[in-house]
Write a structure and sequence with these properties.
It is built from 22 helices and 15 strands. By secondary structure, it is α+β, with helices and mostly antiparallel strands. Helix 14 crosses helix 19 and helix 17 packs antiparallel against helix 18.
């Protein structure tokens, strides 16, 4: 008789043994396969065409999520793993004349793990031209009832303290009115400060500096917990729905619905935005949020906006993930996948960084060794000839050590990158009152000394906001920009720490201060997030920079 593995981690590590011995577990996965097949069959019977869209994307879109980054060796470009099931691609197919499409596939989101969230999972998205979101709501209701009845044999469930009957009339829950009723906040009229105050009263955790849309979402998540459903959540504020069409009678809300079951969101549908001008403005707003540190804000997909300009018909869209199946099976989503991701037991025997390309670096693309016309000591002597203020010299040193850390991380020439970082502000004391000339004097000095052109260019591009004719496009350019910018944020974070010691400053603390634009207000958040151009996430870059500056903490007095 098999008694089963009791330790959850051991069960996941030896899932094949558990499947071998547990017929109930095996039946659950067979049922899950049937779940997706029934969805496929339902949609095909309604004349939806199954399509396949790219998993690797230049610009991830279709959801508010932090993407995974990878590198394409042949093209030598960084790419993202998709965060939605082809939303923006399927909408392009609507432009191309397809009227009903769907895709079932894997999506990847670099976010937290809990009972309802994994980093890679299966979902379905479908799109229907010339239908409004109310027609899609009715299709979704019929699909849920048909699929659930076939897979589970019933429409009535008692799960996690809720009694749920999919066969009864599905009501509508008004987003704004529900929040107003439950927590006495009118989100259309409230300021960020009002919502933060209410979240504090409710004991809900949130990060400082969040956009209004994120704060509203946090408030809603508190309000939804007791809604049994099934019900359709409607009348979402535009701040939480960057891809949904506005309500023509009230432009502050959008044509969107979510399926609410057992206090959770179990499906998401839109009347899809097809106005290219409105879409571009919303992408620009999202880009500002991303530059301010919101890694889940959507990226500006210019190619998609271009497609909309060719004309997309009215479209309704809907997506649902395997979270729905896990809920109905009364399992955590982690329990509902064959092999959930785990940290390697006892550490790795191999170092993947030495075998596979990481952050755009491998044997084919690894940076060349650059011959520099001066030694590091000569570069430092040149720095001290031109900079007399100790603060400016220390800033140059801080940038140097971060540039060296980046070079090691990316497999580039550490000496060259370090010297470029050291000299990036060589002319600052001569040009600080004339920003458009900053770095031009440096360029003349370094050209006269035979310094490598790519190094001079990288130095000049860190002032591209003021100097005309230079734009960042190479790894070295982005490295100088983000490295020299983050020094100020880290230095300021250390100064407000109780013991003013870099050693005790945490990356998460710096990240929170990054989101608060009133803190170290002159630090360019936009330049710091260019670390993403190097394939580094914000928190990872902060950690790398912190560790680099700790190497010279005594020198900089922290």
């Amino acid at each position: 008789k098999w008694h089963g593995l009791k330790d959850e981690e051991k069960r996941y590590r030896h899932r094949y043994l558990e499947l071998l011995m547990s017929s109930d577990l095996k039946k659950n996965f067979i049922k899950k396969s049937q779940f997706w097949n029934e969805i496929r069959e339902f949609l095909e019977q309604k004349d939806f065409l199954e399509v396949e869209t790219p998993i690797l994307e230049n610009t991830p879109g279709g959801a508010d999520a932090n993407p995974f980054v990878t590198h394409h060796d042949a093209l030598d470009i960084d790419l993202y793993l998709r965060i939605s099931c082809g939303e923006l691609w399927q909408k392009r197919l609507m432009v191309a004349g397809f009227e009903k499409t769907f895709e079932i596939g894997r999506v990847f989101r670099n976010e937290g793990i809990d009972t309802e969230h994994l980093q890679d999972y299966t979902m379905m998205e479908c799109y229907w031209a010339y239908a409004d979101f109310e027609k899609m709501m009715e299709l979704v209701r019929k699909m849920y009832c048909a699929v659930i009845k076939k897979v589970f044999g019933t429409l009535k469930f008692k799960i996690r303290g809720f009694e749920i009957d999919f066969g009864k009339n599905w009501g509508c829950v008004d987003y704004i009115e529900t929040v107003k009723k439950v927590v006495k906040v009118d989100i259309l009229k409230s300021s960020n400060e009002d919502i933060e105050k209410k979240l504090n009263e409710l004991g809900e955790k949130y990060e400082k500096g969040l956009s209004k849309g994120r704060l509203i979402d946090q408030l809603w998540k508190h309000c939804r917990k007791k809604i049994a459903g099934p019900a359709f959540l409607v009348n979402h504020p535009v701040e939480v729905s960057p891809l949904a069409k506005r309500n023509p009678e009230n432009p502050k809300i959008v044509q969107r619905f979510q399926v609410i079951i057992g206090g959770s969101e179990m499906g998401n549908g839109y009347g899809e935005l097809n106005d290219p001008d409105d879409q571009e403005k919303r992408f620009e707003e999202q880009a500002k949020l991303r530059d301010a540190g919101d890694v889940e804000a959507q990226m500006h997909d210019k190619d998609f906006v271009e497609a909309l300009k060719h004309g997309m018909p009215p479209v309704a869209g809907f997506g649902v993930s395997e979270r729905l199946f896990a809920f109905l099976a009364d399992k955590s989503i982690r329990e509902s996948v064959f092999f959930p991701l785990l940290k390697p037991e006892g550490g790795r025997n191999d170092d993947p960084k030495s075998i596979f390309p990481v952050f755009g670096v491998n044997k084919k693309t690894k940076g060349k060794t650059v011959k520099i016309s001066m030694t590091r000591d000569e570069a430092f002597a040149l720095l001290k000839e031109n900079l007399k203020d100790e603060k400016n010299i220390l800033h140059s040193r801080e940038t140097e050590v971060i540039m060296r850390a980046l070079a090691r991380k990316l497999g580039e020439d550490e000496e060259f990158w370090g010297v470029v970082g050291l000299l990036h502000d060589l002319d600052w004391e001569k040009t600080q009152d004339n920003p458009s000339e900053h770095t031009n004097v440096t360029a003349k000095i370094l050209k006269g000394k035979g310094f490598p052109p790519e190094g001079i260019r990288a130095i000049q591009t860190h002032n591209s906001e003021h100097a005309k004719g230079v734009e960042r496009r190479e790894k070295l350019d982005y490295a100088v920009a983000c490295a020299e910018s983050i020094t100020g944020l880290i230095f300021a974070s250390a100064l407000v720490h109780p013991d003013k010691k870099l050693a005790n400053v945490k990356a998460k603390s710096v990240k929170k201060k990054f989101k608060d634009r009133s803190f170290a207000a002159k630090v360019s958040r936009e330049m710091i997030v260019e670390c993403e151009k190097l394939g580094l996430g914000l928190e990872e870059f902060i950690e790398l920079s912190l560790n680099a500056m700790r190497e010279i903490d005594e020198e900089i007095g922290l």
